[in-house]
């Protein structure tokens, strides 16, 4: 549950992101936070996240009590189990401009996380707005929509198993003659890629009809 409500903000974009992984309403205060939530929703290793999950109290150099609410608490699968990461989302320009004010509360966040065996990370647009985000934004509508027909999934999987490697364009040409039939199969193909049932590189380049794709055993 969020430690504080998010007010209207006319400088940034605020809203609620529909998420199956959020423990509460996935509210965001900026487009950067929204984009980060998109990557969390898309990342199959992320099991859940909570927006503005805790309020951390700390004391400034004058001994005055202050409070700080980090942006997101993320739980993700690892090879050894699961890790918890407390995340602050900030534009790099804001970090540079406001570093003197931000540093004490970010250090408080780091201490709070360490005491609980968590990690603490600062995520900026450099880490968030990547090729992966572009591919996630493209694929998420197909994931939410789901496959139109189970038979199409089997058809695509069997043909790619036979070929082992292909591209969306070449695979559809193997499966259908008419442009209409190819277009009908394409959403299911993107769904299979988005749900990682077909392998491809989502980090190196934006998806297109000539992206190499691989059968996944």
Please provide a brief summary of the model:
With 217 residues, this protein is α+β, with helices and mostly antiparallel strands.
Top CATH class of the largest domain:
Alpha Beta
Our estimate of the beta-strand percent is 15-25%
CA radius of gyration: 21 Å
Low-confidence stretches: 4-11
- The end-to-end span amounts to 39 Å
Query: What would CATH call the architecture of the largest domain?
Result: 3-Layer(aba) Sandwich
**What does the average pLDDT come to?**
89
Number of helices: 7
Shape: elongated
Find the count of extended strands (DSSP E, 2+ residues).
11
Helix fraction?
40-55%
Kindly report the CATH topology of the largest domain.
Answer: Trna Endonuclease, Chain: A, domain 1
Task: Spell out the helices and strands N to C.
Answer: EEHEEEEEHEHHHEHHEE
Report on the architecture of this protein.
This protein is α+β, with helices and mostly antiparallel strands. The protein folds into 2 domains: 15-129, Trna Endonuclease, Chain: A, domain 1; 131-214. Helix content is 43%, strand content 22%. It is built from 7 helices and 11 strands. It has helices at 31-42, 92-115, 125-128, 131-145, 150-163, 168-175, 179-194; strands at residues 15-17, 26-28, 46-51, 56-59, 65-68, 72-78, 81-89, 119-123, 165-166, 198-199, 213-215. The protein has a 4-stranded mixed sheet. It is elongated, with a radius of gyration of 21 Å. It starts with 14 loop residues before the first strand and ends with a strand. Mean pLDDT is 89; it is low at 4-11.
């Amino acid at each position: 549950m969020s430690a504080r409500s998010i007010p209207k903000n006319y400088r940034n974009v605020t809203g609620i992101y529909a998420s199956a992984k959020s423990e509460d309403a996935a509210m965001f205060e900026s487009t950067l936070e929204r984009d980060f939530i998109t990557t969390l929703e898309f990342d199959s290793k992320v099991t859940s996240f909570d927006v503005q999950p805790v309020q951390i109290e700390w004391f400034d150099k004058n001994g005055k009590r202050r409070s700080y609410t980090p942006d997101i608490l993320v739980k993700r699968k690892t090879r050894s189990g699961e890790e918890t990461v407390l995340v602050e989302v900030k534009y790099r320009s804001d970090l540079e401009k406001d570093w003197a004010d931000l540093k004490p509360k970010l250090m408080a966040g780091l201490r709070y996380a360490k005491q609980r065996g968590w990690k603490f990370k600062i995520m900026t647009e450099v880490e968030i707005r990547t090729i992966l985000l572009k591919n996630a934004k493209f694929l998420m509508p197909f994931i939410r929509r789901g496959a139109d027909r189970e038979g199409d999934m089997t058809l695509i999987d069997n043909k790619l198993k036979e070929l082992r490697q292909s591209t969306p364009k070449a695979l559809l040409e193997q499966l259908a003659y008419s442009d209409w039939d190819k277009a009908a199969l394409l959403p299911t193909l993107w769904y299979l890629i988005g749900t990682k049932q077909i392998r491809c590189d989502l980090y190196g380049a934006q998806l297109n009809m000539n992206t190499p794709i691989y059968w996944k055993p």
